[in-house]
Every structure is written in structure tokens, then in C-alpha cells.
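dumping this here before i forget
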Amino acid sequence: MKRILSFLLAISLISALPISAGAASAGDQALLAVRAAGIITGDEKGNLNLNNPVTRAEFAKMMVSASAFKNSAAAGLSSFSDVRQTHWAAGYIKTAVSAGWFAGYADGTFRPSDNIKLEEAATALLRMLGYTDSADFGGSYPEPQLSRYRSAGLSEGIGLGRGGTVTRADCVKLFYNLLRADTKSGQAYGLSVGIVLDTAGNVDYTALVSSDRKGPFTADRSWASRLPFKASGAEYFLNGKPASASDMQTYDVFYYNENIQTVWICRNNVTGVYSAAYPSTAAPSSVVVSGITYAITTSSAAFEMSDSGKFHPGDDVTLLLGLDGGVVAAIESSLINMSLLGIVQQGAGISPYSDSFGSTVSSSTVTFTATDGNTYTYPINNNSYKPGDLILLQITNGTITTRSPGKRALTAVVNSAGTSAGDHKFADNIRILDASGENVAMIQPRRLSGMKLNAVNVMYYIADSEGRISDLVLKDATGDALTYGILTSVRETNAEMSVSGSYEYIIAGTPGAYSSGNSAFGVNIGPAAFGLSPDGRTINSLSNLKSTELTFISGISAKNGSKEYGTAENVSVYIYRDRNYSPANITAVSDASAYNLRGYYDKDFDDGGQVRIIVATAKTS
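structure:
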């Protein structure tokens, strides 16, 4: 069964942060990293106060937070006359001094409230990298230290000179540079304290956020008390979209990162018949509910689904899923009300399972892909569904009902931002499914920008309590539900008493063949759109693509002169030579002086069409 949503949710929950690390500037990347690492944190209101100067005590805390001692700052009596044991930074100062990074003054003071100067900060960070005064800094302080500070890469992005007062904004860059810098022994400092760097030597932000993320937790009325920071001042995301504390509902699954004071809410529930457990009901590590196997990720969920727990095969149950798609908790299905709108993949079938008495029970079921991207198998109260049908499943107080909802269309143009269709606003977390027969594709709202929606390409939609469209099922609106390839051989018979077709093709560089003894599609050799069955063995629809000459292609665009065409993300590229199609990539054929290029598209570009296949033919001299 498909698990599309679980994957998308995992990615979106990690990447949905105040600033996207992938698109952030160098300065933003530094800020994201040092916050996520807990080196620099905000005040009670979350303010970072980046323009404020940094004291020696504050810098000591930052150094300890950027080290292997971050969770074990030293305690005990201070050796400085002006740092009492009760001073908020006493442990940080003692740790930094004991490690040899920082030093006090000849008069026995540390002067914790003094603002730190650049040369002091530079020297302290160099010591963290393993450099020592006796071996590495010849000459008069602080010029050798400042020279090494620059050659070690610690000065990148910092405009301060000797005697300059270091601000919190400067510390963002100083400590980010520290994490990326090499120690004296040649190892990246970040790696030495367990921080992952990417291939470019930058801090891997998503890995850093994940490593310090706490959870999962199941929300109840007192969920805010679990947070080590004020719930009112935190940043929230619900299923990857910006949210607020008020969006948290009972039985939501949530995670938090204390360093960046961010909470991720995961609302992904599955209700259905508990039909099996693996490796056994005595100690289950995964369960099957509504035809899908789910890994169990918490001990409490494993207990509830075991022989000793509340739920047994044959029971109705609701699973609360975490961001990795695993089972965080199991609750009575009567506690959850929900609805699922989707397209039938497999009509009436029979699903056997063992009930709580050990007897084998069979139930009529239907399998469908819902707008959340998952494919479900549920018991049904009629057996009239066939592949490609629209289905609405509702769970009310644990009772499951299914029906064909009919048609609910709209006539409007989607705006350029993909946030509304005419007067119909889209919900922030709108779920869109485009269907071509039983073939379906998840669609991002931006994909519909400028598209005309009407009774032909809209099957049904659901509006939320505010009147915004939350779920939308389209019919052949984008073409994204189809598969694109090249027909290399076509043999069709369409006589009065005999209709058949035999086809050879290449899809994604892989050859295949299909024969039908009772149908023919009326197509020719060349690029085509394939409507394949879910198992890929049957061609349900087949049509040739339209074409246009191309004079320029790149990874994101295709042009004919000044006219630009939309290009599919998974566009296929082939070089045609000696009647053979060889798979290639865009880079290999981008030289328009060497190749004649032709783009093949599924529908007019004003209607959402895209170039699906590019064929390059070498120019003859």
C-alpha cells in the first residue's frame, strides 16, 4: 500500500521552519544553525536581541553550548573573586576556564559583566580549535591571534577589527564559522561535537533540528505543560504549514525543539479494522489496519495493540501516526470523527481477519486512494464500487459509512499564487487529487495557477467550517496522473468482427510490451500518454502527445524562440538515432547547435499542459 503522506509529512515537518535553510542567505543559515544548536537562544519573548553587545559571561555560556560540555557545565566554587557560586554563569565560566579556553585577570577577577572584545573572543575560539599560546602564537598579543583567527576562517562575514565590541549578531557568525572550521589536528570542529556537515562543509540544518527534536507526544488538555518554554511565544507548524497554539487539538501528535522554540503538530489518524500484528500479537512491532501495515514506534502503542492491551484483531481502532508514519498511540475509534474523499483503486473485495475469539471473519472491502495521499482498504456497506469511482468515507463515533457523493463542481480560474479559485479560497493545507480513471496524482495548489476549473475537470470538493476548499478531486486536469513514454511499435486491427492491439514502448528508459485482444487505441508510433493499471500490467488508456520545436532547454524551462513552455519535473529526455531512442539527460542535449530538439506535451499550456518528453536528434553537418 502507498505511504505517500507519511514521507511528505516527514519532509515538510523538518523543513517547515521560520526560514527555509535551503533558500536562506549565508547570514540566515548561520542564524538557523546556531539557534538549532542551542548556542544562541532568545529571551523569554523569543527575541534574539542581535544588536546587543555580548558580555564575557554570555560568551562563556555560548562556548560551553558549542562544546561537548553543553549538557554538563561544571559546578562548584568559583576561583574568581567577582563570580559568586550563585552567579547565573558560574558553571559556564568554570567550565570554559577549566577547558583552557578562557582566562581571568591578574587581580583574580573575571569581570563577567564586561563586554567582550574581538581579540578576546578570537583567542578563546582558537583555543577551542586546539591552538595554544605557547606553541602557536609567537609575537605580541593580540596580532598573532588575530592573524590565525583570519586564516582559520573564523572571521568570515565579520567586519570587526582589533578592540571592537562583539555583538550577538557577530557571535552568530563567529560560532557558525567555528562549527565549520578545522581544528588544529585537521578535523572539522562541528564533527568533533556531533554536528553533521554537508558536502559543502556547511552545517546540516535539518539533521541538527532532528537530533534535538523531542517527541512524539500525544496532546491532551495539559499539552502545553510538556514544553520547556512558554507555549504562547513558540512557533507552530501543523502538517508542515504555519499554525498557532490554538490549532492544537486533543489526540494530535506533537514534537518540539527547545533551542528554536518550535512545535510541530502532526494530525494524521487512521481508523479501521485491526486485522493483523507482526511478528505476533504477543509483542507487535507492526500492525495492519484498513489494509495498510504500520510500524509501531512507541512502547505504549505496542502494549495497547498486544494480547495484554485494549485492542485485538477484529476490533475497530484509531491509530495516531507520527511524522515518520509510525504508530504513536492507539485509541477507541469512537473518539475520532473523520472523512476521507478519494478515488477507488479496487472495487469490492474480501478481506479476512481473525476476530477477538480467534475465528476467521470475512468482510467486503473497497480500496481507494484518498486526498491525503494514502491508499486505504475499508469495509463497505455496498459492493457497487468500481475502479475510478469517486468515494466518500465517513467515520462518525466509530461507525464507518461509504457512499458515492455525486458531483460538486465549480467554475473559476485559479489565481497565480494557487490560493483560490475565483471566490473560492483554498485552505492552507488543501489536499488535491487529480484522477485519470483509477490513476491518481497528488497535486500542489501552485500547479493549478492560471488554470480554468469547470464541470469537466472538477469532480468534487469539500469545504471546511470557514468555507475554504480543504479537499479537491480533479479529473484529467493536469495530466500528472498519467505515465509518459514512447511507442516504438504499433500493430492494430479494427475490422468489423475483430479489434485488437499490440504495442511496444519505452517508459523511463525501460522497454515493455502490451497486447489486447478486444481493444485498440488508435495511436501511432511516437511519444504518448499511458494510463496504466496500479500494477503496471494493463494499459487502460493510450494517446499520442502534441509536439513543438524547441530552441532552448534547461533544467527548468523549454523555449521556442521567446515563447516559454512549462516543463514537467520528471520530463524524460531521449536521443533519437538510427530509429532507436536512448535515454539521456537535459544537460547532454542542451546544445541547440548540435541537436534538433522537439518537446512533446499532453495538453495546451493554458490548460495546465507541460512538456513531458524531449527528443533530441543530432544535426547533420
